[in-house]
């Protein structure tokens, strides 16, 4: 009786234990979920018509569908491509309504594809698979526009340069079974750009915009 009871307990514990399987060389991971870009921005002041307006900029957060694909070149190292649907951010004045047109200057849209090499601390006895990584980002910035009120005030032709910068991340996979896992990651991306525009026909600029966002991702992944 005791033997049967002990066997039943062992089977129950085995069934209740989380599935544990480390990633292996040759594995492909495909993930989809939510990605939030939270700028940790600092900018130089707006220059308009050669004069410093004494006003900088702030940039709002945005959340979109995040996608990534990774391939394990060894049991511990993979190469990952981060992609997403386009992020659109409101660009605001750092002080309240300096031009009498509201606090929002305009908006910008961007795509920040990032290639990262990750190192996994593989543990075949744990469902948790943490990793760290570093890589390179190229941010495409497009669809820059002023608000209607700022256009009426004479602002036009807003343009922001694309950006190349480094990135770093920490993350974790939680293995549900051999194929499926849940992923969470936090990464820092170095994004620097410059803005140019016209105001009443005169040239204007913001010469140093350090967006430098923290990027938070929560996704579900499949291994094949």
Describe the structure.
- Residues 1-22 form the signal peptide.
- The protein is mainly β and 224 residues long.
- It has two helices and 17 strands.
- It has a single domain, classed as Porin.
- It has helices spanning 2-16, 148-152, and strands spanning 28-38, 42-43, 47-48, 51-52, 57-59, 62-72, 77-84, 87-93, 104-111, 114-120, 128-146, 155-160, 163-175, 180-189, 192-199, 202-210, 214-223.
- The relative contact order is 0.22.
- The model is unreliable at 9-17 (pLDDT under 50).
Question: What order do the helices and strands come in, and which of them pair?
Answer:
Elements lengths: L1 H15 L11 E11 L3 E2 L3 E2 L2 E2 L4 E3 L2 E11 L4 E8 L2 E7 L10 E8 L2 E7 L7 E19 L1 H5 L2 E6 L2 E13 L4 E10 L2 E8 L2 E9 L3 E10 L1
Antiparallel strand pairs: 1-6, 1-17, 2-16, 3-4, 3-16, 5-8, 6-7, 7-10, 8-9, 9-11, 10-11, 11-13, 12-15, 13-14, 14-17, 15-16
The CATH class assignment is Mainly Beta
Strand content: over 45%
Helix content: under 10%
Q: Please, what is the average pLDDT?
A: 90
Number of domains: 1
* Radius of gyration over all CA atoms, rounded: 24 Å
Structural class: mainly beta
CATH architecture classification name: Beta Barrel
Q: First CA to last CA: what distance?
A: 44 Å
What's the SSE pattern? HEEEEEEEEEEEHEEEEEE
Protein name: Outer membrane protein OmpW
Keywords: Signal
Pfam families: OmpW (PF03922)
InterPro entries: OM_autotransptr_brl_dom, OMP/PagP_B-barrel, OMPW
Provide a brief overview of the structure.
This is Outer membrane protein OmpW. Keywords: Signal. The chain is mainly beta and 224 residues long.
């Amino acid at each position: 009786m005791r033997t049967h009871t002990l066997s039943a307990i062992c089977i129950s514990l085995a069934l209740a234990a989380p599935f544990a399987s480390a990633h292996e060389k040759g594995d492909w991971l495909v993930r989809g979920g939510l990605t939030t870009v939270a700028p940790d921005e600092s900018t130089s002041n707006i220059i308009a018509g050669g004069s410093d307006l004494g006003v900088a900029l702030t940039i709002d957060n945005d959340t979109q569908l995040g996608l990534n694909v990774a391939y394990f070149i060894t049991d511990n190292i993979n190469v990952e491509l981060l992609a997403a649907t386009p992020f659109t951010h409101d660009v605001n004045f750092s002080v309240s309504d300096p031009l009498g047109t509201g606090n929002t200057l305009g908006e910008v849209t961007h795509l920040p594809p990032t290639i990262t090499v990750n190192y996994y601390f593989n543990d075949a006895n744990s469902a948790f698979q943490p990793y760290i990584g570093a890589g390179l980002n190229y941010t495409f910035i497009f669809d820059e526009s002023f608000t209607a009120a700022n256009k009426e005030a004479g602002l036009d032709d807003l343009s922001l340069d694309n950006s190349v910068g480094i990135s770093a991340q920490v993350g974790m996979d939680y293995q549900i079974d051999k194929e499926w896992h849940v992923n969470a990651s936090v990464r820092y991306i170095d994004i620097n750009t410059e803005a140019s525009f016209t105001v009443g026909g005169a040239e204007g600029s913001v010469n140093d915009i350090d967006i430098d966002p923290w990027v938070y991702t929560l996704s579900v992944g499949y291994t094949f």
